Amino acid sequence: MGNFENDDALDWAADLEFAEDLKPLKEAFKVIDESGYLEAPDCSNALAAAEIVSAIIHPKAVNENENFPEEAIDFVKSNSGDVPDNLVSESISSTQKVIESSELKELWSETDDLDKWLKIQEQLLHRLQQ
């Protein structure tokens, strides 16, 4: 149910091992921004990217999330410091779009766990907006 508890997000996070800057995060948000129909794998990647932005802003979040992948932890540590304001706003916008209307939300709406999934995303938005 968490944003790192699916294969798409884990595969995306594994590629962070080779990232030299914040570009993978920007690309994940760009896909959401430019897509008409938000496909589940792209949504999972964007939510994982938003979790990383949140962790860079609030490093304690890494310790509180037992499912945070090792590559993502290393990425957060190597990119600690100030996050550009536009990256924070892109992460908020992407997360809101996924919550409002996406294939991922549709898939969760077919389960009994939609409310739990939405709560996780609302908590993420709250951390991003602090």
Comma- or semicolon-separated keywords:
70% helix; 130 residues; mainly alpha
Oligomer: single chain
Number of helices: 8
* Terminal-residue CA separation: 23 Å
Helix proportion: over 70%
Q: What's the rounded overall pLDDT mean? A: 93
SS strand fraction: under 5%
As a whole number of angstroms, the C-alpha radius of gyration is 13 Å
Query: How many strand segments?
Result: 0
Structural commentary:
This protein has one domain. It has helices at 7-14, 23-34, 40-57, 60-64, 70-78, 85-100, 103-109, 114-129. The protein has eight helices and no strands. 32% of the residues are buried. Helix 2 (23-34) packs across helix 6 (85-100) and helix 3 (40-57) crosses helix 8. The longest helix has 18 residues, at 40-57. It starts with 6 loop residues before the first helix and ends with a helix. The protein is mainly α and 130 residues long.
Helix/strand layout:
Blueprint: H1 7-14, H2 23-34, H3 40-57, H4 60-64, H5 70-78, H6 85-100, H7 103-109, H8 114-129
Question: In a few lines, what is going on in this structure?
Answer:
The chain is built from eight helices and no strands. It has 130 residues and is mainly α.
